Predict the structure.
Amino acid sequence: MTTLIVLIAIVVVIGLLVTMVGKNRASARERELADAKAEARRWTERLGGQVMNLVGSNPAAKQAMADAAERFTAAGSQMEQATTVAQAHLTTRTALEGLYYVRAARVAMDLDPGPDLPESPDQRGAGAVAEDRSVNVDGHDYQASPNPSDQTPHYYPGGRVAGRPVPQGWYSEPWWRPALAAGAWGLGSVLLFNAMFTGMVGVPSAMAWEQGYDAGQADGGGNGGDGDMGGDTGGGDFGDFGGFDF
């Protein structure tokens, strides 16, 4: 009889411990979600303030602010629907992208760009436009530049689109947008990337880009500058903005 009572007591204690652990885990998840949503809300509100108060004064700045406003709308929608930490991180990612566009608009208007923003591993791996380039692919002219101008009014903050890195810079047109919408690149995308970025330091080679590798990612494919894919890059999905850790 005594043994039975002891066994029952042990079962009860184990049951209480399991219940307590479950409640603690649930509470931890709720706190983590609350923290992630608070972080997302902070960046989204910061973006909203910029979108409401800054007006572009030239084509490049106007386009950058239009892109920023698009990200603000998307972040607001994501914020309303966020029920998981991953969804809250996605909202943060979208808001940060918008703030990069705001920063670009301020640069285009010769204003103080403001404080630095977090940079994702995807941005670092994609590299940046280091020099002015003008190329013709299949009878169509494309331009890229590290600086805004009337000829290069379309900014991209750098990162991955449909699994492949797109360098940060200013472009004559958003050549990455069809892939962003479709989730896949067209047949001529490698030819365009090769023509526009061959030999540009810090940018993936066309072969590496076609396979989805970042600049400096070790795989023997070479990079846009010296053929050495050695280095350290992050992956991720821009709790990330392409890899930010929150």
